[in-house]
Every structure is written in structure tokens, then in C-alpha cells.
Design a protein that fits this description.
By secondary structure, this protein is an alpha/beta fold. It has helices at residues 3-9, 14-29, 35-40, 62-72, 101-131, 150-159, 177-183, 186-196, 211-218, 230-240, 257-261, 272-275, and strands at 46-53, 57-58, 77-80, 87-88, 93-100, 138-140, 173-175, 202-206, 222-226, 245-249, 267-269, 282-288. The chain folds into two domains: 3-128 and 278-288, Alpha-Beta Complex (Aldehyde Oxidoreductase, domain 3), CATH 3.90.1170.20; 130-275, TIM Barrel. The strands form three sheets. A six-stranded parallel sheet has the order 6-11-10-9-8-7. Helix 4 (62-72) runs antiparallel to helix 5 (101-131) and helix 8 packs parallel to helix 9. It is elongated and about 70 Å long.
Length: 290
């Protein structure tokens, strides 16, 4: 299966991913070919490039990395050992690519940039998922993504076991504090949004327990609890949890994720999944073919 076919099967837009990969390649090749590689590697040389995890983690972006090579040459043979969403141990080969050495070395860094970044997000997400696994809570991402990479970064969150919030501002309505301020209150903001949309979900952000009954009264069934203390989260769930779903946001850290989840909230909104995830260390080991 080609990389683009596999991307489509995984819920990714292959045309969008291809455009991103082409943009990434253009950063290296906009002014011409890889002069160092062309000067040192014979055109007839063939090799195997193994992308190897240096540290354990959860993999995401294997076929994005594969697409990097495919866009530069149709001579490659791929062998995938660790699929997206699977855990990888240190020193395990994730994918092996056989083909022309010149192109392997030209594509190496671009492929690794995608694979290490997305695997880092998947790995970080999985740590959060494991931290709340003893509860019903799910880990959910935000729109705090690198511009242009949201489609891939939210995919990586799914690979790590998390769930996605809005992909775009039109996916769902989220009435935040500034909307409430300008509209004159929770009820006023909710009614305006309700009149202007059709089937999209409406979520209301509140920053106090006193705002919850009003949000429920006007019809909200999904409420974001912004910077609530543990005791406030417990109170909200105990008093209103049977009527609405709750999402905790603000002040969250991996160390307190389990405690927050134990309050009974349905989701933890974690911007750090995408804006602060460290890359997974993955190396490229070249083996010359006989």
C-alpha cells in the first residue's frame, strides 16, 4: 500500500499531507539539490536506511515519513515494523527504507522531522491517557497547535489514545468568557449561538460554580470548567454531573491528571499535548547494500 493510500485509511487527508511534505522538502531543496550528498555519494549507490527509536514511546507519522521518500523517488522499498499507535522500545527499527543512497540521505531529515514530532505528541498523549486510565475521563486536545500542522498533530493525539476537540472554529461552538462578556451574560451568548447554528455542539465555558445552573437552564449539555479547584470540580460533578458533561481545563499537569480525573469529569483539555510535547528521539542508521 502506498503512503497516500494508508494516510487516507487512517482518516488523514492525503492531499493536505502531501502539500505539507512538499512544503517541508522545499525548505531544503528550494535552491537546488543536496550538494554534499551529490559530491560524496555515487549515483549508482544503493543502501538501507533504518529509522530507529533511541527512546521508548508511541509512534505516529510512519506513513508521513514514507511519503517524503516517495515524493522524491519511486525506487524505494519499505518495510514497516512499528505501526502508528503502537509502542516502540529503545533500539527498535520503526521502518526500513531501501533505495538510492543519494535520495535516502536527501530525504532523511525531513522524514525524521515529521516522525519525531508526531511520535512525541503521541507519546506525551499516551502518558496522560495512562495517568487517568483508572477513571472514565478522556484526554482531549485543544487548538494550541503549530500553524499548518493541526491536521497531523491531532492525528498524533489519536495515535496516543486521546480524543480530538475542534479541528476548526466551525466544527463546534465554544462560548468562552469573552463571548459571554460581550453578549452580556451566559444566557444571552447561548441564545445567540443557538439561533445561528444547526447541528453543531455548543459548549459553554464557565469560571465559577454560580454560572453552571444558568448554562444548564438555557440548554447547555457540555460545560468547560476553567481553572476550577479540585473541590470545585467535585462539587460541580456531584450537583450537576447527571445533567451535563464536564471538561476540566487550566492548571493541569501530568502529575495531577489522575486527581483531576477522579473528580468525575468527562474530559481533561490539555494544550500541552501539542504545544509542549518533546520530540521522540529517533535516529537514521544507514547500511550500504552489497
Amino acid at each position: 500500500m502506498s503512503a497516500k493510500s494508508d494516510l487516507s485509511a487512517r482518516g488523514l487527508n492525503p492531499h493536505l499531507v502531501e502539500a505539507l511534505v512538499e512544503l517541508a522538502l522545499s525548505e531544503d531543496l528550494a535552491d537546488g539539490p543536496d550538494i554534499t550528498t551529490l559530491a560524496t555519494i555515487d549515483e549508482a549507490s544503493r543502501a538501507t536506511l533504518n529509522l530507529v527509536a533511541r527512546n521508548p514511546g508511541v509512534v505516529a507519522g510512519v506513513h508521513v515519513a514514507q511519503l517524503v521518500f516517495e515524493l522524491l523517488s519511486d525506487e524505494f522499498i519499505f518495510e514497516v515494523f512499528i505501526k502508528d499507535g503502537q509502542k516502540v522500545a529503545a533500539n527498535e527499527v520503526i521502518i526500513s527504507i531501501k533505495g538510492p543512497t543519494q535520495v535516502l540521505l536527501t530525504a532523511e531529515r525531513t522524514a525524521l522531522n515529521f516522525l519525531t514530532h508526531l511520535s512525541g505528541i503521541a507519546t506525551t498523549t499516551n502518558l496522560w491517557v495512562q495517568a487517568v486510565s483508572h477513571t472514565k475521563a478522556k484526554i482531549r486536545d485543544t487548538r494550541k497547535t503549530i500553524p499548518g500542522l493541526r491536521h497531523l498533530e491531532k492525528y498524533a493525539v489519536r495515535c496516543g489514545g486521546g480524543v480530538n476537540h475542534r479541528m476548526s472554529l466551525n466544527d463546534a461552538a465554544l462560548i468562552k468568557d469573552n463571548h459571554i462578556l460581550v453578549s452580556g451574560g451566559v444566557s444571552e451568548a447561548f441564545e445567540k449561538v443557538k439561533k445561528s447554528i444547526s447541528n453543531q455542539e455548543i459548549e459553554v465555558e464557565v469560571d465559577s460554580l454560580e454560572q453552571i445552573p444558568e448554562a444548564i437552564r438555557v440548554g447547555a449539555n457540555f460545560i468547560l470548567l476553567d481553572n476550577f479547584s479540585i473541590s470545585e470540580l467535585k462539587t460541580a460533578v456531584a450537583e450537576y454531573g447527571a445533567k451535563v458533561k464536564f471538561e476540566a481545563s487550566g492548571g493541569l499537569a501530568l502529575e495531577n491528571a489522575g486527581i483531576v480525573a477522579e473528580t468525575g469529569v468527562d474530559y481533561l483539555a490539555v494544550g500541552a499535548l501539542t504545544h509542549s510535547a518533546p520530540s521522540l528521539d529517533i535516529g537514521a542508521d544507514l547500511v550500504l547494500n552489497d
